[in-house]
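Quick check before the chapter quiz. The format below is the same one you will see on the exam, so make sure you can read both the input and the output lines.
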Amino acid sequence: MNAFTLAMLAATSAPAQPIAPVPISSPAVAPAPPAVAPTQPVVSFWNKRIINVPVDFKPEKLKTIKEALLFVSRDGGEVYEIGDRIDPSQKTAFNYATKEDGEYWVQLQLVFRDGTLDPKNPRALPPAEKIVIDTAKPVVTILTAEMAGEEAIVEWRIDDKHPADANTRLWYKQTGPDNTAWQEVPASAISKRTARFKPVVSGPITLNVTTADLAGNVGGTNRDVKGPITTVAGSGTGAAPVPPVALDAPAPPTSLANKEPLGPAPSGPLPPPNLTADPPPSAAPAPPRTAPVAPGFTPPEPTRPAAEAPRPIASSNAPPPAGWAAPPPPPAPEPTAPQFSRTPRFDLNYTLDSGASGVARVDLYVTRDDGRSWVRWSQHDGRETPLKVVLDTRFNKELEGDYGFALVPVSGAGLSEGAPQVGTAPELKVRLDTTAPVIKVYAPTADPNNKAALVLNWEATDKNFGRDPIAVEYAESPQGPWKNVTGTDGPAAARLENTGSYSWQPPLNLATPKVYLRFTAWDLAGNKSEVVTPNPILVDLTKPKARIQGITAGPGR
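Here is the expected output.
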């Protein structure tokens, strides 16, 4: 970095122990670019999740610096987010906690008190350093361990993202007490991940394969070799067994400026791990995250025998169920109910705050699991307002359901606050529901509690009913005019609860004893279904009565 010395130190969750940075001069304004071609950035491997970046400036130059920013990119330099920002006069180190393993590009920027930046656009320069975070230990599996005469034949596998076969060591000892000395197999007997060697002990032996990956994570495993072994004479016969040799750990990462080691070298020898058996097989990897599937509607179980179940006289969906029962009341609304949409294409209103470089683009991020995972859905030029949201894309196989949205603007200098992290709550929640309610209408029945009333029966189902989603109207003609069964007048139909029945007392001034019924259902997304009975309903609540008035003699009697 041409403005200051940069040093990096991987640390555990405990406070980091940074090395003392080397102060150098820092100009009051952004220096001119170097005439020589930039070198390739250093690639460092780290086995810890917390990065500590010490910085230091000479006192006479420190007063010219207002702020220092650490930029980090997770997508190969396409978008940089601000990992940390400090006032160098108050704080002498950046701290950045990575959330997952992977490659991180690091760049730094100074903000001077006169408003100049160094560099002006971190995205336009190669990264100051590429850091690969790898916290997973290698998994070692011994595939073959057998004797062929006097020779032991061994083959193993190493499962790791960043293996380093040069750091692999093969050891053996006579099977027995734990204090039996380990002996290392000579490197000349090892070829790739196989080995053939003659043990210099008698009886069964135990093998150990130990390795360290490029990040310094150590893994290993033991396995017994069965079978007789003949004592083999060789150079040094009769001498004491050679003690285990320390496993060479990879060289610690270096600073960009002076290439000095930034971490302590391994202290003391590293013998083979005291493993007594092969490690258990790794758990099967979790399936890739996909958009959650909205649960489908399961009709309620019939509560009456099929022989007694009424048949619907009208329906917005066929075929009718084998039995019918009034559905339960709609569930209580969610504490933080999302907005609803019945179309996958809608406008998203937003505002932007930007600096001198303006906004180069706006990235729309979407979550289908309430922030547990995010995907960059679409990119926009920043001049589109409102922003056009399109959810019915080819890769979106499960269209209906819940969506969470977040907007990430990217400045003209390529800077942004970064993609939403795991666990980030969405700024807006939208539930997409393109399915209209289903209505089934059943024949009216006499109201046992009111001789002047009819019970109107229906069944309406939908995943997203709100309060009072049903309207029932009547008319003497299928073309209307329609009147509310509640007796209220108004331009809109009066809404009822979705109880599945309503006791209606027909008015006495009907011009005809036959009326048509219209049932309408709306869900929270605005989807609407409407059913009109195909035939008029006879409204005649009079029960015929007969009165005996005596007898008379018929003709001829």
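If your answer matched, good. The chain has four domains: 9-133, 138-256+271-277, 343-432, 438-538.
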